[in-house]
Amino acid sequence: MTWTCPTCARTFAREEQFHSHDTEDVDVHFAGRPERLRESFDKLIRSLPSDVQVEALTSVIVLSARRTFAYATVQAERLLLWLRQAYQRCSAGGTDLP
Length: 98
Ligand SMILES: [Zn+2]
Known about the structure:
This protein is an alpha+beta fold.
């Protein structure tokens, strides 16, 4: 069972879960950045299970599968990925980062 916020259309495991409504297009995060950063990000997303949601907010790109497990931020010359411990359990199931 999931809940969809009527304001921003993001979906969550719990109703009324605290979150940001400041959604953004993923492309905005990569605008003016080296193409290799977008290529790396796209490769990462393709390597993840199909139920992983990618939601871009104004400040970060959120990766979630029932729960948020990673945040990505795009800087001038690098792509930073902040992994939560939950991802390690997912990784143990056979999904590896590219
Ligand atoms: Zn919302």
